[in-house]
């Protein structure tokens, strides 16, 4: 379980599992993660699945801003695995970032590896998850980052805090599910349900199961740290009878938003303040998908209960009114309200002038069937694929970071990912399917250290247009603009918010629309960039940003750790 090594001498207050404990503060923490197959029963279905320390969701990592956590991951499972610390920038230390065959090779069964997770300016909520095939479905947990000792939240201290994890539940084995789908190039079956802190709740046909319950006292304010760890769907979330206040996203503070619902993409986190000021009773908490495409998806609703202490059981528990599944307008209305806090205490630094613009089309494609006999599982007997700038990413078998760091001349990747697609067309037009065939390759984008980068993600109408939550490792970035249709070099930048844009690590690129992000390339390393819908990542909607070393020792990639897993 969790072991904390006390290094600091100062005294501080640590928040652990719902209790405030007095403990010696430290800026180094040690955790032990044992990965193994454990049986869980949900939706009346029992199955063995990979978990950390036999917990689902897995253990929470607790740190303060600027701390370091050493996490020893021991693999007692059947397959190789890696862990990613989602949203943790890991300055100069891509070695501990995790994506399989990008920054490391998998930790093989029976082996272990200690990740050094280096926190810098993140404050709020992040999460960790497996980054090998689809194992993140069950291998995931929270990261809670408190302010530094002596600092407070930019809002009144909540009475208590609670973590809320949204996840997907599959009645089948997720590795078999994706392996089978990949074999024939078909769309994997959607999940069988969603869970809140591991439990699907009241709306599924399995009434004898537990439902997650959050106890609150009348008059008190609570901080809910919400993670969307769902595999393939963006989610609406709400609490019956209550408005709440969103105060942070992806471990950065935002201007408070009072709302009755949120829309959160896979990969994102949101910190929510809830004041228990309604008639003491029980209220449903619910999450259901926002999904605006013809692709198959899980259209179920997961629930939990907000329960006032000392309340008499109501005859019927009120249910929140969430926007309907395809309600794009409600999704956009919420998203467009998010602005950085940008206060004196929490300033932001948006690049005003950019030195490098990268324009990236984001598409779901098809490849001709490559099976010797039989037809593939995609449309028209083709193989489903996905791409960035029309290049469908093929994962190498030796990690890119080791090859790059050793300056090998003969690498299994290229550095010629283009700054715009080879062919320009009406990306969101009706004829986009003419461009359905992608190139397949392992291409990374080289970026100079210190460059002021703008990336424009342009969704296309190729195949099945969909909203794509794009995630960049090693960085957070400012979302300076977004709209439907094609990005226009002359007019679109005029619509940008360069004053208080939200700073995130994952952003939903609207269906048949575009999103522009900005950041300064001040973290040297090999950083994966991909759609956080797992189906799309599996089909190749990925690339790698290689940020070159800077001029000084502290702007260079660190040396590799001694026990880095070697490639099979
Ligand atoms: C785990 O579940 C599987 C599938 O139901 C079953 O075959 C197996 O016996 C279970 N193992 C344990 C230890 O309960
Ligand atoms: C972890 O791996 C190291 C080698 O990298 C080995 O020396 C050590 O015994 C392993 N620890 C466990 C608990 O397996
Ligand atoms: C995967 O395919 C195998 C072989 O056809 C089948 O036995 C198994 O049930 C499939 N698993 C899933 C999760 O679809
Ligand atoms: C829950 O109920 C279902 C029938 O509704 C039954 O098949 C299952 O075994 C029960 N599970 C437990 C854990 O009691
Ligand atoms: C929530 O906010 C809406 C819109 O401002 C308002 O109409 C509603 O009364 C509020 N509900 C509660 C419980 O405060
Ligand atoms: C999703 O489910 C809801 C409620 O069951 C239903 O009204 C809606 O039509 C479904 N949406 C889609 C796109 O299937
Ligand atoms: C709940 O009820 C108990 C027993 O009646 C009482 O001691 C306690 O103060 C009550 N708590 C609240 C929050 O009202
Ligand atoms: C979205 O916001 C606009 C402007 O505030 C409002 O007119 C519209 O009703 C909202 N739409 C939905 C679906 O809430
Ligand atoms: C950005 O460019 C403008 C015009 O070229 C210049 O006036 C301004 O000083 C630049 N700002 C920064 C922060 O470099
Ligand atoms: C493919 O064809 C070969 C030879 O015709 C046959 O032996 C094999 O079983 C076939 N495989 C499938 C999956 O149908
Ligand atoms: C990573 O490389 C190993 C060989 O080192 C290979 O077995 C594995 O399939 C690769 N993983 C992916 C996701 O391609
Ligand atoms: C790569 O090639 C250069 C010049 O051709 C040579 O100096 C260098 O040693 C080579 N690097 C490796 C790792 O073999
Ligand atoms: Cu996607």
Automatic annotation (TrEMBL):
InterPro entries: Cu-oxidase-like_N, Cu-oxidase_2nd, Cu-oxidase_C, Cu-oxidase_fam, Cu_oxidase_CS, Cu_oxidase_Cu_BS, Cupredoxin, CuRO_1_LCC. Its EC number is 1.10.3.2. It comes from the Eukaryota. Signal peptide: none annotated. GO terms for cellular component: apoplast. It is an enzyme of class 1 (oxidoreductase). This is Laccase. It comes from Rosa chinensis (China rose). The lineage of its organism: Eukaryota, Viridiplantae, Streptophyta, Embryophyta, Tracheophyta.
